[in-house]
């Protein structure tokens, strides 16, 4: 029954996503939603290393920039077709992630986070200063749109939307297979405690490194999609504020859940869009809303709902029927007592 309910929920979400272009008022709404989907892919990757493995990587946006600049440099400077460059975006990010993880994952807790924060800033500086490769602060302009596949022309906002949606669905399916496999349970065991994981015979370094590489692979792929969708890149793509945005999406939706980062990555950008009429004061409203969510829903929207479902399932189906009380037998008047 739970499996049927989960499939029904995901099917309804997919149908709504497929129907969204026909309900959207204009192309701007498609742009907002497509960008949200791209960041949802990157957030799903961050959730794997942070929510499931317990390692908070603050260089995540830097790896997204690696994927984006892989596509930008190869297509603009070397004339490589978009799809060939896109195929390399996640692989290049994972390749660099191997060496970063090999060093950083020897550290624990906040030391790991501080180290990756420094790595992310180094990535930002390299993109900004290495002008011969990245074009520096000028950025990369004129990234070509994805080439057509048969009758599908990806130069239109609607077809681009469906392209990004396809990769989001594929990413969620792959992530579902990972987290519900023995490998996913291994990651959760590491999150629950290194000593416990070692006692179970888990190789900590190898599995942490694998989780890190898978995480940044999704981030690099999201960056490749971002480059093909926006078609302009600047050093700001690697800014650490984007990592904090993705962290906020996880916290709002539910860290360590599959659908939580997706919900947060879609809901938060739309909330900020609807608060635009407040101009610079919109964060005065948006900030307290986030604080209230963290206070009253510490496990996020999806995490809180799942916890309630587990508590309901733990309760007995029916309350035990109390034993009937025996009625006192009335005695006749004048009856003799023994």
Automatic annotation (TrEMBL):
Cell compartment(s), UniProt: Cell membrane
Region Disordered, annotated ranges: 316-338
Domain of life: Bacteria
Transmembrane segments: 34-51, 58-76, 82-103, 110-127, 161-179, 209-229, 249-271, 283-306
Keyword entries, A-Z: Cell membrane, Membrane, Transmembrane, Transmembrane helix
Biased composition (Low complexity): 316-328
PANTHER family on file: HIGH-AFFINITY BRANCHED-CHAIN AMINO ACID TRANSPORT PROTEIN BRAE (PTHR30482:SF10), HIGH-AFFINITY BRANCHED-CHAIN AMINO ACID TRANSPORT SYSTEM PERMEASE (PTHR30482)
Name of protein: Branched-chain amino acid ABC transporter permease
Organism whose genome encodes this protein: Pseudoduganella buxea
Origin organism lineage: Bacteria, Pseudomonadati, Pseudomonadota, Betaproteobacteria, Burkholderiales
């Amino acid at each position: 029954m739970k499996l049927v309910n989960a499939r029904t929920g995901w099917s309804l979400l997919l149908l709504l996503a497929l129907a969204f272009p026909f309900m959207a008022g204009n192309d701007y709404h498609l742009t907002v939603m497509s960008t949200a989907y791209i960041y949802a892919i990157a957030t799903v990757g961050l959730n794997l290393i942070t929510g499931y493995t317990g390692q908070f990587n603050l260089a995540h946006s830097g790896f997204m920039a690696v994927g984006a600049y892989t596509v930008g440099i190869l297509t603009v400077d070397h004339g490589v077709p978009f799809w060939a460059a896109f195929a390399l975006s996640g692989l290049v990010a994972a390749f660099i992630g191997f060496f970063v993880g090999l060093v950083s994952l020897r550290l624990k807790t906040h030391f790991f986070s501080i180290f990756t924060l420094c790595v992310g800033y180094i990535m930002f500086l390299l993109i900004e200063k290495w002008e011969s490769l990245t074009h520096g602060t000028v950025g990369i302009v004129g990234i070509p749109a994805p080439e057509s596949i048969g009758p599908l022309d990806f130069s239109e906002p609607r077809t681009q939307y469906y392209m990004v949606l396809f990769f989001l669905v594929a990413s969620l399916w792959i992530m579902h297979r990972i987290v519900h496999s023995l490998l996913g349970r291994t990651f959760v065991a590491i999150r629950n405690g290194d000593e416990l994981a070692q006692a179970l015979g888990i190789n900590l370094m190898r599995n942490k490194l694998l989780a890190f590489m898978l995480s940044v692979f999704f981030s690099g792929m999201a960056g490749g999609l971002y480059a093909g969708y926006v078609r302009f890149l600047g050093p700001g793509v690697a800014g650490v504020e984007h990592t904090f945005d993705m962290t906020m999406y996880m916290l709002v939706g539910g860290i360590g859940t599959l659908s939580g980062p997706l919900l947060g990555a879609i809901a938060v950008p739309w909330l900020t869009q609807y608060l635009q009429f407040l101009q610079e004061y919109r964060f005065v409203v948006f900030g307290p809303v986030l604080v209230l969510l963290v206070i009253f829903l510490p496990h996020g929207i999806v995490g809180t709902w799942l916890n309630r479902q587990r508590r309901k399932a733990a309760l007995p189906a029916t309350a035990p029927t109390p034993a009937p009380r025996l009625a006192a037998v009335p005695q006749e008047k004048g009856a003799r007592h023994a």
